[in-house]
Amino acid sequence: MAIFYQLKVTDGANFLSEEESRHCVKVLRLRPNDPITVVDGKGGYYQSVIQETNPKRCAFNVINHYQQPALPYSINLLIAPTKNLDRMEWLVEKLTEIGINSIQFIECDYSERRVLKLERLQRKAVSAMKQSGRALLPTLFEMQPLTSEQINFPENTQIFIAHIDENHRQPLSHLAKIHKSYLVLIGPEGGFSPREIAWATEQKFQMASLGDYRLRTETAGLTACQTLHTINHLQ
């Protein structure tokens, strides 16, 4: 069954956005009374039927509504985007598919990318959500300097930095407690500066290893997210 995204869905008459309407009518060639599923990005699934196939304002009626069960933990990522934007688009797609609550982009001392537009990344996330059959859309935050006061720290969260030194080589899978809120900090390809390591230490980030080998930025982000899912699902 075709899945469409609409942020606000009511119990009465509803309309798909122009982009979704065009895809429904022009690409999929759906007709009145065809069944569809609409997701709101907040965990809601709406089993619906098409009422009017207007390619700019496709109308549908909701038949049934149910909510995606909430997990007993949340995963949030702080990450420095790569110079090649394709790699960040890939990461946003994969993180949305496996499930993540938020992605906040950061500018570090050694960052190669200083500007990031979220519009395309947001579209990639929506597409991945629909293709994977999920109803939860991760929150994407605008890029901020790592040490900025605008960095979002969820309450009661275990915070980790993907960095190791001679005295800190504990793997993330050993440090993370189950059923918690997590925030993982992933640096740029050049790593963190001494100033940033000092800041993270002051903020009580725990240094965590993601394996025995050096990972690319996008690989590290995906590995951290999947590691946290795995330790919770094994309990």
Topology overview:
Elements: E1 3-5, E2 13-15, H1 18-27, E3 35-39, E4 44-52, E5 59-67, E6 74-79, H2 85-98, E7 102-107, H3 118-132, E8 139-145, E9 157-162, H4 172-175, E10 181-186, H5 194-202, E11 206-208, H6 217-233
Parallel strand pairs: 1-3, 6-7, 6-10, 7-8, 9-10, 9-11
Antiparallel strand pairs: 2-5, 3-4, 4-5
Helix pairs in contact: 2-3, 2-6
Describe this structure in words.
- The chain is an alpha/beta fold and 235 residues long.
- It folds into two domains: 3-67, Beta Barrel (Ribosomal Protein L25, Chain P), CATH 2.40.240; 74-233, SPOUT methyltransferase, trefoil knot domain (Alpha/beta knot).
- Helices cover 29% and strands 27% of the residues.
- Helix 2 (85-98) packs parallel to helix 3 (118-132) and helix 2 runs parallel beside helix 6.
- It is elongated and about 65 Å long.
- The mean pLDDT is 93.
C-alpha Rg, in Å?
20 Å
Main sheet strand line-up: 8-7-6-10-9-11
**Beta-strand share of residues:** 25-35%
Ends distance: 33 Å
Q: In total, how many beta strands?
A: 11
Q: Could you name the CATH homologous superfamily of the largest domain?
A: SPOUT methyltransferase, trefoil knot domain
CATH class of the largest domain: Alpha Beta
Quaternary organization: single chain
The CATH topology of the largest domain is Alpha/beta knot
Q: Determine the mean pLDDT.
A: 93
**CATH architecture name of the largest domain:** 3-Layer(aba) Sandwich
The biggest sheet, with number of strands, parallel, antiparallel or mixed sense and barrel status, is:
6 strands, parallel
- When the domains are counted, the total is 2
Q: Per the principal axes of the C-alpha atoms, what is the gross shape?
A: elongated
Residue stretches low in confidence (pLDDT < 50, at least 5 long) are none
SSE order: EEHEEEEHEHEEHEHEH
